[in-house]
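Give me structure tokens for this 220-residue protein.
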Amino acid sequence: MEGVIATWYARNTKGDIRDYRRCARAVTDQVTPGGSVLEVAPGPGYLAIEIAKLGDYRVTGLDVSHSFVRIARENAGEARAAIDFRQGDAAHMPFADDAFDFVACRAAFKNFSDPAGALAEIHRVLKPGGKASIYDLRKNASREAIDREVAQMGMSRLNAWLTKWTFRLMLLKRAYTDDAMLRMSAESPFRRGEIVEDGIGFELRLRKPAGAPSARRSSA
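Here you go.
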């Protein structure tokens, strides 16, 4: 997303802070103080900011959208949160091997053009023993459940209507089934993953075993 669309998205997802806070607590419960956290595709930066608020964590965000990087930096500045937001591709991350203790990705994985590449890069940049969580929409989420979820987001009537139709016409079509996510995990350097369903979404839990190699994915 760029320009006006990115601004609209940032404005209309800001009010749903309760889920960002819940997600942030789930992440920081798995990271020791002083640890490093990467959020892939942070968008406006709301989750990364909530993570930074919870303690002494080194937080980084990587987004392909120039607009979102700008917006996230502005939001972090207003929140007085020290976060390193950068522009870049999830399938070709500008980070060293074994750089992070935890990697999170929320509501974005279904939009990646190279999901296998993103998984390989998440594995590469994780430290041995590091963990990752991918949070996204379940393909079999019902319309009724989506409508209830949107109703809790505190949007205007028009924006709520637009958001519901975005779910129905775009997001559900891009979403993955549990089986598809587990299959991708098995084919990735992680070799396995665990799915935990949560409302209209899921969490894919991944772990890089201690001693696992961190080879950069070939561009061939």
